[in-house]
Fold this sequence. Notes:
mainly alpha; Recoverin, domain 1
Amino acid sequence: MKNILTVLALAVTGAMSVAATAADPAQPATPAQRATPAQPATQTPAQPATPAQPATPAGAAKSAPQGVSPEAGRTELPPMFKELDQDKDGQISKDEAKRSAETKASFDSMDTDRNGKISLIEWGAADKTKQNSKKN
Protein backbone atom coordinates (compact mmCIF):
# COMPACT_ATOMS: atom_id res chain seq x y z
CA MET A 1 0.00 0.00 0.00
CA LYS A 2 2.90 2.27 0.80
CA ASN A 3 4.27 1.71 -2.70
CA ILE A 4 0.93 2.60 -4.22
CA LEU A 5 0.74 5.81 -2.21
CA THR A 6 4.29 6.73 -3.21
CA VAL A 7 3.56 6.12 -6.87
CA LEU A 8 0.32 8.04 -6.57
CA ALA A 9 2.07 10.93 -4.83
CA LEU A 10 4.77 11.04 -7.49
CA ALA A 11 2.16 10.93 -10.23
CA VAL A 12 0.20 13.77 -8.67
CA THR A 13 3.36 15.83 -8.11
CA GLY A 14 4.49 15.26 -11.68
CA ALA A 15 1.06 16.13 -13.03
CA MET A 16 1.02 19.32 -10.99
CA SER A 17 4.38 20.49 -12.31
CA VAL A 18 3.27 19.79 -15.88
CA ALA A 19 0.00 21.63 -15.25
CA ALA A 20 1.84 24.54 -13.63
CA THR A 21 4.19 24.84 -16.61
CA ALA A 22 1.30 24.78 -19.08
CA ALA A 23 -0.65 27.36 -17.08
CA ASP A 24 2.30 29.77 -16.84
CA PRO A 25 3.03 31.00 -20.38
CA ALA A 26 5.77 33.32 -19.09
CA GLN A 27 8.08 30.35 -18.81
CA PRO A 28 8.74 28.63 -22.11
CA ALA A 29 8.71 24.89 -22.20
CA THR A 30 12.14 24.88 -23.85
CA PRO A 31 14.89 27.38 -23.20
CA ALA A 32 15.09 30.16 -25.79
CA GLN A 33 18.12 30.22 -28.04
CA ARG A 34 20.08 33.38 -28.45
CA ALA A 35 19.90 34.93 -31.86
CA THR A 36 23.09 34.94 -33.86
CA PRO A 37 24.16 38.54 -34.47
CA ALA A 38 23.72 39.52 -38.10
CA GLN A 39 26.71 40.48 -40.17
CA PRO A 40 26.86 44.25 -40.62
CA ALA A 41 25.52 45.13 -44.05
CA THR A 42 27.55 47.28 -46.37
CA GLN A 43 25.86 50.63 -46.20
CA THR A 44 25.35 52.70 -49.30
CA PRO A 45 24.55 56.40 -49.16
CA ALA A 46 20.85 57.17 -49.24
CA GLN A 47 19.55 58.23 -52.63
CA PRO A 48 17.46 61.41 -52.72
CA ALA A 49 13.83 60.88 -53.59
CA THR A 50 12.89 61.43 -57.20
CA PRO A 51 10.07 63.93 -57.56
CA ALA A 52 6.88 62.51 -59.00
CA GLN A 53 6.19 63.18 -62.64
CA PRO A 54 2.80 64.64 -63.57
CA ALA A 55 0.48 62.44 -65.59
CA THR A 56 0.76 62.81 -69.35
CA PRO A 57 -2.55 63.30 -71.14
CA ALA A 58 -3.37 60.72 -73.80
CA GLY A 59 -1.93 61.66 -77.17
CA ALA A 60 0.55 64.15 -75.72
CA ALA A 61 4.24 64.13 -76.51
CA LYS A 62 6.34 61.84 -74.31
CA SER A 63 8.48 64.71 -73.04
CA ALA A 64 7.53 68.35 -72.90
CA PRO A 65 9.22 70.35 -75.62
CA GLN A 66 11.86 72.78 -74.45
CA GLY A 67 10.69 76.35 -74.18
CA VAL A 68 7.10 75.37 -73.40
CA SER A 69 5.65 76.94 -70.30
CA PRO A 70 3.15 74.96 -68.20
CA GLU A 71 0.59 77.69 -68.79
CA ALA A 72 0.77 77.10 -72.53
CA GLY A 73 -2.13 74.69 -71.98
CA ARG A 74 -1.55 72.86 -75.25
CA THR A 75 -1.33 69.14 -75.63
CA GLU A 76 -0.97 69.25 -79.42
CA LEU A 77 1.64 71.19 -81.33
CA PRO A 78 0.47 73.45 -84.16
CA PRO A 79 0.55 71.39 -87.38
CA MET A 80 3.18 73.54 -89.14
CA PHE A 81 5.42 73.63 -86.05
CA LYS A 82 5.14 69.84 -85.75
CA GLU A 83 5.97 69.39 -89.43
CA LEU A 84 9.03 71.66 -89.28
CA ASP A 85 10.39 70.17 -86.02
CA GLN A 86 12.02 67.18 -87.70
CA ASP A 87 14.17 66.10 -84.73
CA LYS A 88 11.18 66.40 -82.35
CA ASP A 89 13.13 68.43 -79.78
CA GLY A 90 10.30 70.92 -79.38
CA GLN A 91 12.16 73.69 -81.20
CA ILE A 92 12.71 74.70 -84.79
CA SER A 93 16.32 75.23 -85.80
CA LYS A 94 17.42 77.44 -88.68
CA ASP A 95 18.01 74.34 -90.82
CA GLU A 96 14.52 73.01 -90.04
CA ALA A 97 12.98 76.42 -90.85
CA LYS A 98 14.36 76.18 -94.41
CA ARG A 99 11.50 73.78 -95.21
CA SER A 100 9.04 76.71 -95.10
CA ALA A 101 9.71 79.90 -97.08
CA GLU A 102 7.57 81.96 -94.67
CA THR A 103 9.29 80.60 -91.54
CA LYS A 104 12.73 80.95 -93.13
CA ALA A 105 12.02 84.61 -94.01
CA SER A 106 10.75 85.51 -90.53
CA PHE A 107 13.10 83.25 -88.51
CA ASP A 108 15.23 86.06 -87.04
CA SER A 109 12.21 88.10 -85.92
CA MET A 110 10.56 84.98 -84.39
CA ASP A 111 13.74 83.95 -82.50
CA THR A 112 13.30 86.61 -79.82
CA ASP A 113 15.81 85.08 -77.37
CA ARG A 114 18.43 84.84 -80.15
CA ASN A 115 19.41 81.24 -79.33
CA GLY A 116 19.19 80.06 -82.95
CA LYS A 117 15.95 78.14 -82.39
CA ILE A 118 12.26 78.97 -82.34
CA SER A 119 10.52 77.59 -79.26
CA LEU A 120 6.82 76.88 -79.07
CA ILE A 121 6.39 80.05 -77.01
CA GLU A 122 8.16 82.14 -79.67
CA TRP A 123 6.09 80.42 -82.38
CA GLY A 124 2.87 81.17 -80.49
CA ALA A 125 3.82 84.83 -79.97
CA ALA A 126 4.64 85.26 -83.67
CA ASP A 127 1.40 83.50 -84.63
CA LYS A 128 -0.59 85.79 -82.32
CA THR A 129 1.10 88.88 -83.80
CA LYS A 130 0.34 87.58 -87.29
CA GLN A 131 -3.33 87.03 -86.43
CA ASN A 132 -3.64 90.48 -84.86
CA SER A 133 -2.14 92.13 -87.94
CA LYS A 134 -4.68 90.33 -90.17
CA LYS A 135 -7.56 91.71 -88.06
CA ASN A 136 -6.36 95.34 -88.42
